[in-house]
Amino acid sequence: MPPRSETRHAHRFWACPECDYLMHQRAVPDKQEANCPRCGYTLVARHHRSVERTLALAITGLILFFPANLFPILSLQALGLAQQETIFSSVVALYDSRLYAVSALVLMTAIIVPFIKMLLMVYLSASLMFHRRSRGLSWAMRSYQQLDSWGMLEIYLLGVFVSMIKLVDIAEVTPGIGLYSMAALILTTLITSTQLDQHRFWRRIEQLERAR
Amino acid sequence: MSHSALKQGLLCCTQCHKTLPHSYDGRPCPRCGTKVHQRRPHSITYSWALLISAAFALIPAYMLPIMTLKSLGQGAPSTIIGGVIDLIEYDMLGIAFVVLTASVIIPLIKVVGMVILLLTVQRGVVTNLHQKMLMYRFVEWIGRWSMLDIFVVAILAAIVQLGNLASINGEVGATAFGAAVILTMLSATVFDTRLIWDKHLQQLEESQ
Prior knowledge:
Chain A: Pfam families: PqiA. The structure holds two protein chains of two kinds. Chain A has helices at about 50-70, 85-95, 100-130, 135-145, 155-165, 175-195, 200-210, and strands spanning about 15, 20-25, 35, 40-45, 75-80, 80-85, 170-175.
């Protein structure tokens, strides 16, 4: 541990953001993690080719976003009547029930946030990969991190399953292309966030912005 | 010797995790631009305020109907608990358990967990620090899954629109429940976990 006089050498140390434990920085090899010895927080998780992989995954996610939103998630047939459902139509249904706040909440968590997260990640990883000093890189990374827990597509998917089971006795419900695209989109989003090496991203952003 | 960055005149940006000299306290982080603090100011007060609001929002969320099934002109409003009971009556125990967990058990665990955390940190209890940290991470991770019932209402209201035959509409209970979920999520987010360890470190320091 450093004496007080060494505080200007902050770059030699890591402080755990969750428990404030102070430790000397050390190199973390590829595919390995560094955890806080006191509280177990993952300080650094090195991923092989993190920038390239997140770029590929984010582009995939961006493409999958369109079929997931444009094609029906579920179709229902009962007594000769048919009804289809997309993510956006569930937002509209809440709006029609005069639940404006809830409708806005579903719009944010199931459509806007997942889309913006992918968009930010494409912009970020493409800029880092091609060493482009694009505008607002640190803003994009910060926004991505803050939006992370507000994208709730996986919970929406669970909601689709619960709804299907609730309706199974009453009507015939069939999953549509939208549902399969959404499942693929969720998988892509999850892999993107596990392959994202936040420590490396922040250092690269810092290097690029300093060179400006 | 201290194991706390604070005692060594360093602080950590909670957004990008850069280690900074304590002179940055209250100023934007040079790397990511977020305002950095040695400890998030009024963290416990904000956390309490959001938690208490969430607890109050849960009352109408459970009492008021979250949706109405209208069939042949007759309306049948259903509450969250009523929905779970229906599922049990139809012998769909697995899905009843999922819905019960997401909409009743998780919100209650979240509120109780945050109350325990806030009280023990305020009173300077220094036992079970690791358990408290684990509990916080659990509360923070599981919180969003309570949104399940909101999505179910949204999906059912969208797909069951068969005119006079049968139609489902959302009801005001969903607003209260949505508010409760968001408020508990925010309550966990504004809580500065470093406060869990501070009193313990202070005592270690004094004993040396």
